[in-house]
Amino acid sequence: MDKMRQGVILLITLSVIVAMLALVGVIFSYLQKSRDSASYTSALIQADILFRDSKDVIKELLKKSEKDKEIRKTIFDTLYTVPMILQVDDNETYVSLSCHPLDSGVNINWLKAEGNATAEQRKAMAESTIDYIVERYEISDGSLLLSKISDSISRKSDLGKKKGIINLSQLEDIVRDYRFESDDVAKSAIPWDRYFSFGLDSTTIDANYISAELLSWLFDMDISLVEEEWLEGDDLKQFLSRQGGDISRYNEKIFTSESKERMRCRVMFGYAEESYAFGFKYIEGRATEFDFYGKQ
Questions:
Q1: What is the pTM of this model?
Q2: Residues 231 and 265 in one domain
Q3: What value does the mean pLDDT take over residues 201-211?
Q4: What is the distance between the alpha carbons of residues 42 and 65, in angstroms, rounded to a whole number?
Q5: Do 121 and 194 belong to one domain?
Q6: Are 105 and 111 in contact (CB under 8 A)?
Q7: In this structure, is residue 29 part of a structural domain?
Q8: Count of domains forming the chain
Q9: Cβ neighbours around 271 below 10 Å, total
């Protein structure tokens, strides 16, 4: 009888231990989540401070170069090609700022451009670029893809304003939807952001920062030559003249050589022994669309 009782006690004891271990596991899990949440919140606050500081740094840099085009261009070239990094001696605290122009491609929303002759030229450029991509990347139903993109551009918000396509991920979602509907299996990845830019308020292309792929297509040049010789930030018109590109396609109303205060920036920073990142748009002195990417 005593042995049976001892066995029951042992069984109860083991059950209690298992239950306690499970409870301890839950508590530790909760505490870890609380710590992670606290770290996330603290990092988000830090990101918000850095967001304002980054905006002010860019604004001050550009303000000092307002009257000197060469210095101004050098600043843009630096922002677009070399990340600005500030690192403290402990090697854990750092801030890295890098940017790229918002208007370095054909704006996808020009597919629905309407109005004057220049608007029609923008529309024709966007349509021909889609046609080129359809052929170049072997898309089986270009008409369906164009229809889906155009419908998304024309879709309106609850306030009656045109929504448009405002970022790359939105376009990629449309393409995935097209592939699902058409059973079109991708033969190769399409670098959409090397051809198109996004947003509703762009009317020109930042000519000196276009990609090699877009330059090759728009100006009828061999891609291998362009990839070898073209350096983003160079003068596009001079490059075309020097390398034999079709300069007649350079439309002064669409391409601009003046550096534009329109960029998308990404900031990475070290905080509490972790790396975090956020992004934002900087347009003519204003910073908008803050987007916290979290832990990297």
A1: 0.79
A2: no
A3: 93
A4: 35
A5: yes
A6: no
A7: no
A8: 3
A9: 20
Q: 225 in a domain, yes or no? A: yes
Residue 2 corresponds to which amino acid?
A: D
**In angstroms, rounded to a whole number, what is the distance separating the alpha carbons of residues 67 and 71?**
9
pLDDT tens, residue by residue, 106-145: 999 999 988 899 999 999 999 999 999 999 999 999 999 9
| 282 belongs to a structural domain | yes
Residue 236 near residue 219 (C-beta atoms within 8 A):
no
171 is written with which tokens? 């376009």
55 with 94, same domain: the answer is yes
Residue 6 lies in a domain: no
Smallest CA-to-CA distance from 207 within 260, 264, 244, 130 is with 260
62 and 74 in one domain?
yes
User: Alpha-carbon distance 177 to 184, whole Å?
Assistant: 10
pLDDT at 228: 95
pLDDT at 263: 92
264 touches 104 (CB < 8 A): no
Helices (H) and strands (E) in the chain, counts: 8, 9
Domain that holds residue 221: 207-252
Residue 254 structure tokens = 């669409």
Query: Which residue type occupies 198?
Result: F
27 pLDDT band, cuts 50/70/90, is very low
Do 199 and 226 fall into the same domain? no
CB 208, CB 232: distance < 8 Å? yes
189 in the same domain as 110: yes
Which is higher by pLDDT, 188 or 149? Answer: 149
Cα-based distances in Å from 156 to 143, 151, 170, 205: 22, 10, 15, 25
Instruction: Verify that 82 and 152 share a domain, yes or no.
Output: no
Single out the residue of 24, 61, 14, 35 nearest to residue 272, CA to CA.
Answer: 35
Q: How far apart are CA 192 and CA 168, in angstroms?
A: 7
Residue among 119, 107, 286, 133 nearest 201 (CA): 107
